[in-house]
Specification:
Spore Coat Polysaccharide Biosynthesis Protein SpsA, Chain A; two-stranded parallel ribbon; 17 helices; alpha/beta; 9 strands; 7-stranded mixed β-sheet; 408 residues; 3 domains
């Protein structure tokens, strides 16, 4: 049966395609009816991943969702899941593809994915929290119109970072305008809002990206280790051996350099590499502590949340391999090249949280001295010893020195 399903799958995935979205759920249903165990699904998944064939991307995504659906069926105690995402210049992607060439209809698709995952699960409640990050195009208002038109106010709500700043709400009290936030301020505000009222039973807060890169049918892959493995945070990883990734563009070496450098500054995240994947889950009870007094409200906020969690409790973070399909056509971050500002923020984290660690000082001082022109030169000449290695090696490997980056 599985062979027939495999042969009938497309060779690529387009999550903006309604036909693909429906077919994914059809294939999931067929596999679930086959009576497989999670272990058997994982064996099939590993076999396909070892082939290193991108034409299996569709079935591999299906298998991730199958596992998540199976885990959802095991929930017997009250569970509430809040899913937060920020919108900034998402006025095109939020529309249907018939309304705009870049339209993904992501708001309604996210809603349908969660609705499907938890159907017939009376113990599970969920909500979507959309946070407008000061969008000049009014993405938040467009989202609210869609919610109103579809009568979804009981499941989805829209927050505005500008209003939180005006009201001086605790998580954004140090912001004077939305210009000081690039995603981070909005996600932190959304997480804070999610936990303002105590939910019955276990409460998990997840944040994701606005686009459809990560199918929310995978949510239980993150939630399960928080419920059953004594973990506080689960992060989706695009770099684990069992991850399934379709990524466009040629930014791999730049990403490697970024990882190598932050690893020299943040010593407590061990084997964690993919800090920037927009799919992370947190136990609600730790959120007030880890979002308090944050340095970063821009793109490096993920790293600060993770390092504060790791300081809270050792081995509290688990990595979860996910399926991730790049959605770059209308990306709001592709042109920003945020690596240098992120690294400068991470230097501040180094000084605040690890002031006694002298080993990082050389890299911290070097990064502080860089301007855009100098950093662009480094990006165009990433040392071969970084290029030829896997990012997973950078926790231990530290042979590329500041002098090598300077080209002295």
């Amino acid at each position: 049966m599985l062979k027939k399903i495999l042969e009938s799958c497309p060779k690529e995935v387009d999550l903006t395609n309604d036909g693909h979205s429906e077919m994914i759920l059809e294939k999931v249903k067929l596999i679930l009816e086959g009576g497989y165990t999670i272990s058997e699904i994982e064996e099939i998944e590993e076999h396909l991943i070892r082939k290193k064939d991108n034409s299996f991307i569709f079935i591999l995504l299906v298998l991730k969702i199958v596992k998540s659906k199976m885990l959802a069926s095991k929930i017997t105690e009250p569970l509430f899941i809040s899913v937060v995402f920020a919108v900034y210049k998402e006025h095109n992607r939020i529309r249907k593809s018939t309304e705009h060439p870049h339209g993904e209809d992501f708001l309604l698709k996210k809603k349908r994915q969660l609705e499907w995952l938890f159907e017939n699960q009376p113990n599970v409640g969920w909500e979507l929290i959309v946070v407008d990050d000061g969008c000049p195009e009014g993405s938040g208002k467009i989202a609210q119109n869609i919610i109103d038109e579809n009568k979804l106010n009981d499941k989805i709500r829209v927050l505005y970072l500008s209003e939180a700043i005006e009201q001086k709400y605790a998580p954004v009290k140090n912001l004077s305008s939305t210009n000081e936030s690039q995603k981070g301020g909005s996600i932190i505000y959304g997480m804070w809002d999610a936990v303002q009222q105590k939910k019955a039973g276990n409460h998990i807060v997840i944040y994701t990206d606005a686009d459809l890169s990560t199918h929310l049918g995978q949510v239980m892959l993150l939630v399960d280790p928080l419920l059953n493995n004594d973990k506080l945070v689960a992060i989706g990883s695009r770099r684990a051996p069992k991850s399934v990734v379709i990524k466009k563009g040629k930014r791999n070496n730049r990403g490697k350099l970024f990882i190598y450098l932050w690893k020299r500054l943040i010593p407590n995240l061990g084997g964690i590499v993919d800090t920037q994947c927009g799919f992370k889950a947190f136990r609600a009870e730790i959120i007030p502590e880890i979002i308090d007094d944050l340095i970063e409200k821009k793109f490096a906020f993920d790293i600060e949340l993770l390092l504060k969690t790791a300081l809270l409790k050792k081995e509290a973070i688990t990595k979860v391999p996910i399926a991730w399909i790049d959605s770059e056509e209308a990306s709001t971050t592709t042109d920003l090249q945020p690596y240098l500002p992120m690294l400068k923020s991470i230097v501040k984290m180094n000084k605040k949280y690890f002031s006694k660690k002298k080993k990082s000082n050389e890299f911290a001082s070097f990064i502080e001295s860089l301007d855009r022109e100098k950093f662009d030169t480094i990006l165009e000449n990433v040392p071969d010893d970084i290029v030829k290695r896997k990012p997973s090696e950078f926790t231990e490997y530290d042979e590329v020195k500041v002098t090598d980056l300077k080209g002295d």
